[in-house]
Amino acid sequence: MGRFVHPERRPAAVTGASSGIGAATALALAALGHPVALGARRTDRLDELAARIRAEGGEVSAHALDLTDDESVATFAEKVTADLGDIEVVISNAGLVQPGTTYEVETAQFAHEIDLNIVGAQRLARAFVPGMVERQRGDIVFVSSDVAVRARPFMASYAAGKWGLEGFAHAMQMELEGTGVRASIVRPGPTQSEMGSAWADEDAAFVITQWVRFGLARHPRLLKASALADAIATIVTAPRGVHLNLVEVTPEATVEPR
């Protein structure tokens, strides 16, 4: 018998599910009994995660998803709904950041990152939220970043994207009030993930040095992706009548010896 339990059935879709916070969230929601739809561009990773969830007794669907493409988002929504039924929980998690000086980075790259981090979230909302409103029930959670309130140098597109994402989400919260649909924000601090893993070593070292210079890295501790998954699970399992609008999660510093 698998370790997953099956209470009230609330299918959940998770984007950026091939690694990091997305993968951890999919596992956490599956463990709570949610049928889980996995979306990402790296379908080989999705297949591995789906096999793990099935082996542990969960219900899962996995399909390719590119949030910068209207047709891809629409097709994903159609497929996962056909596989699992009406989606009641959506986790908007996909994101991208490449290091670069704001006035030197290629405009096309800057625009691509903004497209994914903001417009991609709107594409996802447009695909799933109208059905939630019609059914008067649902949760959509936007994974933001502490750069939304504390911008970091040499990743301006990411900071701008997350600032914009939170403004977008706050507007949605007001628009959805009284519909039975909750829009929430999770704001992670520094987290262990694959984001930034493709950076050249010298670029990463330079950027981190600048973070320290401006007081943006007070200690070296990082969150595990599972900590964000737990926060997201808390949001979507909150009882009706409770709306966790914004949850900020930061790594605790190492206890200093006396």
Automatic annotation (TrEMBL):
<protein>
    <submittedName>
        <fullName>SDR family oxidoreductase</fullName>
    </submittedName>
</protein>
<dbReference type="InterPro" id="IPR020904">
    <property type="entry name" value="Sc_DH/Rdtase_CS"/>
</dbReference>
<dbReference type="Pfam" id="PF00106">
    <property type="entry name" value="adh_short"/>
</dbReference>
<dbReference type="InterPro" id="IPR036291">
    <property type="entry name" value="NAD(P)-bd_dom_sf"/>
</dbReference>
<keyword id="KW-0560">Oxidoreductase</keyword>
<comment type="similarity">
    <text>Belongs to the short-chain dehydrogenases/reductases (SDR) family.</text>
</comment>
<dbReference type="InterPro" id="IPR002347">
    <property type="entry name" value="SDR_fam"/>
</dbReference>
